[in-house]
Design goal:
Helix 5 packs across helix 6. The chain is an alpha/beta fold and 225 residues long. It has a single domain, classed as Protein tyrosine phosphatase superfamily (Protein-Tyrosine Phosphatase, Chain A). 44% of the residues lie in helices and 8% in strands. Strand 1 and strand 2 form a beta hairpin. Strands 1-2-5-3-4 form a five-stranded mixed beta sheet, sandwiched between helices. The N terminus is likely disordered. InterPro entries: Prot-tyrosine_phosphatase-like, PTP-NADK, Tyr_Pase_AS. It comes from marine sediment metagenome. This is DSP-PTPase phosphatase fused to NAD+ Kinase domain-containing protein. Pfam families: PTP-NADK.
Length: 225
């Protein structure tokens, strides 16, 4: 397993939205009540799999069979786990071992759907997207909130998409109900403060969690301190 050693920059191609119709059909079949309760049908038979351009696969927590499929069909080179390091948990140990056995780069970033990422966490995510070998598979638990957030960051930093286009990856189509979470509000802050700057430049110059928590008037249970 590799842990650093960037190999190549990803191609900056437009996002593939060809599965939108089938995704809509799936959510209709699942039923909106189930979607509201479960935060998306991203577990079990439905893996909430989608593509962010040709080089990034997004999904819910993959089973080993899902990892095998991603390796065989999508030729992944890197796995990005957005649930953080969880040594001793079956899902984590299986994933880590799979990466080792298949010489894949394995990276972990601990994101929370209920709090802003720390400067270290968001910086690590940006660094991963800019340096790892592609194709890349990224996931959280349901593939909805943390994975949707990361997909937007990828589109802003690597694909250089406009914010409104990038936010299409953070939507009900993948089970993210517009609940005005801190992750949603982070992009509101960027929109308000961008002043023509890229997301990465805004992050480098102005991203301060305590300041943003005050600006966004986040309640105590959504603050990092």
């Amino acid at each position: 397993m590799t842990t650093t050693s960037p190999q190549s920059r990803p191609r900056q191609d437009p996002v593939d939205s060809s599965d939108m119709t089938s995704r809509l059909r799936h959510h209709l079949l699942c039923g909106l009540p189930l979607l509201l309760v479960a935060g998306g049908c991203g577990y079990g038979p439905f893996d909430n799999k989608g593509y962010v351009g040709p080089n990034v696969i997004r999904m819910a927590q993959p089973r080993e069979s899902g990892l095998e499929e991603a390796l065989e069909q999508d030729k992944i080179k890197t796995i990005v786990n957005l649930r953080g390091e969880n040594a001793g948990k079956d899902w984590y140990d299986t994933e880590f071992a799979f990466a080792q056995e298949n010489d894949l780069e394995f990276r972990s970033v601990r994101l929370s759907k209920g709090r802003l990422p720390t400067r270290q966490q968001l910086g690590d995510l940006i660094e991963i997207f800019k340096t790892v070998e592609y194709p890349l598979l990224m996931h959280c638990q349901s593939g909805s909130d943390r994975t949707g957030f990361a997909a937007v960051v990828y589109r802003l930093v690597v694909l250089d998409d406009p914010l409104e286009a990038a936010l299409e990856s953070f939507s009900i189509w993948y089970g993210h109900i517009q609940r005005r979470t801190p992750l949603d509000k982070l992009f509101d802050a960027y929109r308000d403060e961008a002043a023509g700057r890229s997301f990465e430049k805004w992050f480098q110059q102005d991203y301060d969690v305590a300041r943003l928590e005050e600006k966004l008037d986040l309640p105590p249970d959504e603050r990092t301190q």
